[in-house]
Amino acid sequence: MNVVAAIAVDGTIYAAWLFVMSVGLSLIYGVMRILNIAHGSLYALGAYAGASLVIAYVNHGYPPYLSYLVLFGAALLVGLIAGPLIERGVLRWAYGRDEIVLLLVTYSVFLILEDVTKLIWGVNAYNASQPYALLGRVSVAGLVYSVYDFMVVGFAVLVGAILWWVFNRTHAGRLILAVIHDQEVSLAMGINVPRMYLAAFTGGAALAALGGALTAPMISVVPGISVEVIVLAFAVVVVGGLGSLEGAALGALIVGLARSASVHLLPQIELFVIYGVMALVLVLRPQGLFGRAEVRRI
Amino acid sequence: MAGRATVVTGVVTVALAIAGAWLPTWALFLLTVALGKGLAVLGLVFLMRAGLVSFGQGLYYAAGAYTVGFLSDRVGIHDIFVAITAAAIVAVALAALVGLLMVQYREIFFAMLSLAFSMILYGLLVKNEAFGSTDGINVAPPAFAGMTLGLPGLRIALYLVVIAICVVVVYAAHRYVLSPLGYLAHAIKDGEVRVEYLGASVRRAVYAKYLVAAGLAGVSGALVSLAVGHIDPEMAYWTTSGEFVFVAVLGGTGGVLAPLLASVVFEVGRSFASAYSPYTWQLTLGVVMLLVILFLPRGLWSLLEVRGLARQR
Amino acid sequence: MSDILVTTGITRRFGAVVAAEGIDVRVAEGSMVGMIGPNGAGKTTFLNIVTGYIKPAQGTVEFRGRDITGLPPREIASLGLTRSFQIAQLFGTLTVIENVLIALGVATGRAQSWWHPLHDRAAVAEAGELLHRFTLDHLAGQRVDTLPQGARKLLDITLAMVRKPGLLLLDEPTSGVSAEEKFDVFDILVRVLRAEGTTALFIEHDMEMVARYADRVLALADGKVIARGAPKDVLGDAEVRRLVIGVED
């Protein structure tokens, strides 16, 4: 068994998951300058919605291969409902205030959603493993993996490609990039920022939910999954640079490989390594690998 | 104004101390833990007044707690005064190192870096058997200057120690917020550049506040761990730090008593809410925090201010 | 009279923009120097470099014969060189007198204290006296973020004067102030400067102020000094009139 190959494959799979899971957070920060702590809750909502819908779907005896569409649809639904609700209903009352205040607002939303999730789905575990098991297993570099894991990698690449295309090749996307790049100038140029905020937050929410829905078949969906996801997503986007798509990808890769290496070589430092990398980047280059330095003027 | 505050504090302190004899066990425990945690929140408030929100006070809270745990479980030292002093020293020593880095950051980056450091400690604690891993470590009941007390006496003694420490800290904090160094926090928040141009080092001032906040968090961790009798890695987890921030925002940064009062309100609220409706207490917390942020940006303390019962500073 | 400030060959670029190039300036002690120039000429950059906020790529700054190039603002301030800002840099959530008390605390070293109150009687009296000289004493208890622009600019200058500096640099002391108030601001300023024996260099866009209050004038354009001398000479210079005042002869 080749340890290096194992680290590489594991790392890539984990990185793909990290990417889909975190890219929404980066997008929201880039456009709105909000570090969304509720990101983890949106992920959980996606996981719960995906898991519960797939279980119901499979129990009705529908074709199992279409369960992937159910997952995808669940995530979209969560994003389209929760996104606007949160942005229009809560966030916008705090716009214009300090970044830290907005962070605390999203923290409140996180607390609220934690219970909302419990109220809707209860506290029992949801195990929707059918989509995961359905694709079977495959042997790579002497180790056995589930095909679903590689599908996640493919999916992450697809999501990345679509997002890249949206930002760089569509008019709407380029407007978003403009707002990310310089808010004041964008406003002066007449870009409809409120509409942009709504779109960005909804998109970010949908992506977070997608991350959750994608993960649901791999885990036992229980209360509390949001809490760990938030800090992991933070680590990824901090390393890559807040507001950058390429940054989210690179950050995911770095964190994924670092974690994979430590799991295989020195498991005691697994968590230490992830946050150690985050701290290191914050110290050496606070804006992240692809982020832009903030300019202070007097 | 200082005169009235001293009298009120004195009266309340004596009242609390005496009430200790009559309070039911659960209330005594609640107050001990709430006031103990309140110290960490107070330290955090000092930082927040300068515009720095730390999402990682759990680092020092856990450092203090684990110092006590180690002394108790591995070294066999149970004296409470030794434990608290050791916890404070460890926390401040750690902060002296980490703080050198932290003072160079502001806003979101400060918050994120503080979170990262606390999560690093969490990672170390959770994955290592030497630190008790996820189970944590049990903390034996403390001895008080050589005396071991039976359970009811122990509870009261711990309660009184917490109150005594709170009184001393509150008094010192009161003088601090009225001092030039205390006002400098507002200045730093309003205009760092100006502070530098006046001739003061912002970094040095922030570093000092950071050390104080860490020391208070360390003592807080020590006291709570002695009251609860157990420590675990959760104390370094971001949600613990988040809880401190929540209480700080709830109380507001305007007064010195606010963090302690808010901590008591929080613990009492949490106890009742999680007993009666476990699926909605976080919801309630979230809603309360939102309401406070949107309508009472200076925290619950500002309610007292409006009624002329308290002064902003 | 010796030169209290001497800059030699100050040069600084920001990317492609030349903010300062070979700026040689001598400020005689006790004088009042006006600095004029179009927007982007490098006047504020010059102040930023002299006061240590940014470092020059080349050149030196000497204050009272001592090389202060590259020192941070707080050290330069403690040596007796202070400045006021184009946008008043004040502590908005505090009162006027508290702003001065903090400045006093820092200047006297009492800011290190955490035990004694800021509002100590002697300090309050001294702060009050300073506010009185700048005609701000009636606003002592008011919160700074409620002050009108003129008062804000005056307070900004007051804070810079707390240390009784040898040299005060002012960045557009009357910007945003109404035409009538401009004279008041300058009259008060000049009165305090003379009483303290403080040398001053002020950036101004209002040529009337420059003509009236400056002993000497420096004209900057594109990062270079294009004219220097007595006010009427500089203000009458053809280059200056074209680039700075915008008059075509």
Describe this structure in words.
The complex is a heterotrimer of chains A (298), B (313) and C (249). Chain A is built from twelve helices and two strands. Chain A is mainly alpha-helical. Chain A has one domain (3-284): Orthogonal Bundle (ABC transporter involved in vitamin B12 uptake, BtuC), CATH 1.10.3470. Chain A is globular. With 313 residues, chain B is an all-alpha fold. In chain B, helix 1 (2-19) packs antiparallel against helix 6 (151-178), helix 3 crosses helix 8 and helix 4 runs antiparallel to helix 8. Chain B is globular and about 60 Å long. Chain C has 249 residues and is α/β, with parallel strands linked by helices. Chain C has two domains: 1-80 and 167-249, P-loop containing nucleotide triphosphate hydrolases (Rossmann fold, 3-Layer(aba) Sandwich); 88-164, no CATH class. Chain C has helices at residues 43-50, 73-79, 96-108, 121-133, 149-161, 179-196, 207-213, 231-236, 238-245, and strands spanning 3-14, 17-28, 32-36, 58-63, 66-67, 81-84, 167-171, 199-203, 216-221, 224-229. A six-stranded mixed sheet of chain C has the order 6-7-8-3-9-10, with helices on both faces. In chain C, strands 2-1-4-5 form a four-stranded antiparallel sheet, with helices on one face. In chain C, a hairpin with a 2-residue loop joins strand 1 and strand 2 (17-28). The model of chain C has no long low-confidence stretch (mean pLDDT 91). The chains are: A mainly alpha (298), B mainly alpha (313), C alpha/beta (249). The interface between A and B is large, with 46 and 40 residues.
